[in-house]
Amino acid sequence: MQRILTKTHENAEIEEEKLILSIFVAGISFLNLNQKKNLIKNLDSPHSLALLSIEEIFKFAQCDFKRRAVWNGAEGLRLAKAAAYQCKRLGIKILLHDDEAYPELLRQIADPPYLLFVRGDEKLLEQRCVSVVGTRRLSHAGRVAARKFAYEAVLDGCNVVSGLAVGADSYAHLGALDAYYDWLDKSAAENVTDTELLPGRTIAVLPSSIDNIVPYTNKKLAASVLQSGGCIISEYAPGVPTEKWHFVSRNRIVAGLSPATVVIEAPAGSGALITADFALEEGRDVFFHEAAFGVFATRISQVVKQDLEKSYAAGRVSKFKMENTPERFLNNGAPVIKDYRDFCVALEEMPGLRSMVPLQGELFT
To answer: What is the C-alpha separation between 257 and 261, in angstroms, rounded?
Structure first.
């Protein structure tokens, strides 16, 4: 019996070391997924990584040395150990890029997260999803559109993915929650037991560490996501401080989890359009809700455009950001939809059918 207990203890220690090493490697921000995979092949423990010089890290990762990269092995090891402890304490699940539970659609993008930290039901990540994004400066029509689209999607059994930001993201999550609780009330009243009619849930992707809700004002909304059976995910371990570039990096995950992204409203330079770009780069579908071209949305877009033009003239923003508009996507064939049902119809249509530019066949008529 003592021999069995000793062996079990040893196995637990080995698993703990593997966990800490994975978190340690995941936290190296100057390496991409493939470089991290190359690096970990040359390591047998988190302590061996802590002892490496930055030059050795780049050598083992099989990539060119970046002079601006910063490395502190001892501090990295301390943070990885603290993160592993927090994951156990808070019940945070960790999905490694080659785990079976890691979402396949996300695994297929150009640079998927090395690790995913998950609170809630990780099985949702492998189910049918649609990503809903939009601006923080949302018109009333946009708020209604985001909420209604998510509501109908969840009642159809589809999970709604968004970024928990203020604006379109929040209204998409709220619509999904409304649908789930309305379904519960109706099922209880009608004594429904058919498991084939289960609703979807909502998935929130954080730009921050998994234990830190950003923005703080959406902390209550995040709790509601978990209470409804949804999930919250992040590629950042507990304790990792939030950086500005995390917000753009988060967008690739939002786009990567779904075969299609729906933009509710997005004036020029909006982060939602960056998400749309990520989706297109990965061969996913992008749709625009008609609310994006309503009267009030157009007014907001005009104000944003004027601000961007001033910022561009002052050298504060790039020309691409100023010119990155919904019209650019429409001119390249992105369809416009009215609601979730119309979205489902558009998914089955031939590409280009709703395009603003003529189909190739029409050029010769």
So the answer is: 9
Contact 140, 296 (CB under 8 A): yes
Task: Look at phi and psi of residue 199 and say left if phi exceeds 0, alpha if psi is from -120 to 50, else beta.
Answer: beta
C-alpha to C-alpha distance for 92 and 110, rounded to whole angstroms: 26
| pLDDT tens digits, one per residue of 252-309 | 999 999 999 999 999 988 999 999 999 999 999 999 999 999 998 888 888 888 888 8
Residue 109 token pair: 């993008």
Which residues in 250-287 are b (16+ Cβ under 10 Å) and which e?
A: bbbbbbbbbebbbbbbbbbbbbbbbbbbbbbebebbbb
Give the Cα separation of 331 and 67 in Å (integer). Answer: 41
Helix spans in the chain (H): 2-26, 33-40, 46-50, 54-61, 73-90, 104-107, 140-155, 168-190, 219-227, 245-256, 271-281, 295-313, 319-323, 326-331, 340-348
Residue 37 CA to residue 33 CA, distance in Å, equals 6
Q: What are phi and psi of 112, to 5 degrees?
A: -70, 155
Category of 88 on φ-ψ map: left (φ > 0), alpha (ψ -120 to 50) or beta: alpha
The upper half-sphere exposure of residue 11, i.e. CA atoms within 13 Å in the direction of its Cβ, equals: 6
Give the three-state DSSP class for 258: coil
What is this structure's pTM?
Answer: 0.91
